[in-house]
Amino acid sequence: MARRTASDVEALLKDDNKVKVAGVDADGVLRGKIMSKSKFLSCIRSDSQGFGFCGVIFGWDISDTVYTRELGISNSANGYRDLTARIDFDSYRRIPFENNIALFLVTFMDPEEGHLGKSLCACPRGLLQRITAQYRDELGYEALCGAEYEYFQFKESAQSVVDKGFSNLTVLTPGMHGYSMLRTSLNSEYFHDLYEESAAFGIEIEGHHTETGPGVYETALAYTNAERMADNAALFKLTAKTVGMKYGIIPSFMAKPHNGLPGCSGHVHFSLKSQDGKNVFAVDEPRLDAKWPDLKHVSRTMEHFIAGILQGLPDVMPCLVPTINGYKRLVENYWAPVNVSWGLESRLASIRIISPPLASASATRVEVRVPGADMNPYYTFSAILALGLYGIKNQLELDIPPITAGADVAKASKRLAKTLKEATDQMSSPESLARKTLGDDFVDHYAGTREHEWQVYSQTVTSWDLERYLELA
């Protein structure tokens, strides 16, 4: 499909007087602003097809606190200089819940490479674009993805949670009601509005229902190409939070907001499409040479893809589980995978194969069940696809046996990191597969941001500290 030109964009905006632009930071947070139409048009007609955007968004954390240890992209030594935010003409859509204003997403460019050089090493959109380009250029494949979000709803506002000290929050509905037809009747206006506003925003939803837990929803976003899927996933969070505000509701994508309950997953699905439109992971006939019965309905390419993920999964964990809280979800007996494991239709494994005989051949795909709802979808997709590409190019063999019914998953294979610090140390190591597949520049920057997250956490006195030690220590 032909890409939009500046003239195409100008025609789309003929009745507008302003435009919204936004980029994505390392935490997956959308950072943007409104720009006058005249300024915007001058930007898209420039050599850079972009504008200056303060680089501090890669120099501070999720709460706008400058990193404890200054990192290379944005720091006091370079004056938190501007980055070039290159406007993606094909990202155009309109925000239905914000007066239908036009929105364009940007990719942040590396100032050392010149205005039309390569994207910034840590730019989430840029990283994913580089990985998907490798699939197209080296293999002739298009990467397809899907994302499913689980998220708790609280009958609160931004002010009320502060006033309550983020404790004793009111859940939207009580009780455990997975796939409930009854619970969607409560707050039905919000439930349906979220679906409709997403659709109007260009975010197609395949499934939208309650999940088990007080006030928990699950929303499965419609399968599409990886870059569009990541945009949709990031913008769905914005949609949910904005629509929620209208109803006095905070949807939380925090991975583990409650003790004693399952956390919120961000399950992600992957497949590859050939130039003639075929699913590269599917086979016409069962494979007689499959090493494991669970593989007989999938291609050798899919086997290599999975092998690459399994080999590098421990090394990219911060890309899948980026927060301190996320590792509190990855505990035994709470429907979250904690080991390097795989299996056919197994929801206990890190990697679930979806294929015949239970699914159609055209739906053959890989589900990675490790990420939480707090994932940065661009980093998550990039990490998984990069490892899959590594497996395909090196024709890696899947030598870990699959999880079988009744198996002790805890003994299946290597335990994944239990903390963000452990995961970050593994990613940073010289032999990390993250370095080989995502690049040293990315790993050095992103690991630095996670080290900061751990340092802030480890130095914070919490209510748990006070309750446990104030009187008795």
Automatic annotation (TrEMBL):
Sequence similarity: Belongs to the glutamine synthetase family.
Signal peptide positions on this chain: none
UniProt GO molecular function: ATP binding; glutamine synthetase activity
Protein name (Swiss-Prot/TrEMBL): GS catalytic domain-containing protein
Organism this protein belongs to: Mixia osmundae (strain CBS 9802 / IAM 14324 / JCM 22182 / KY 12970)
Keyword Magnesium: no
GO BP annotation list: biogenic amine metabolic process
Keywords for the protein's UniProt record, in alphabetical order: ATP-binding, Ligase, Nucleotide-binding
Positions of the GS catalytic domain: 124-473
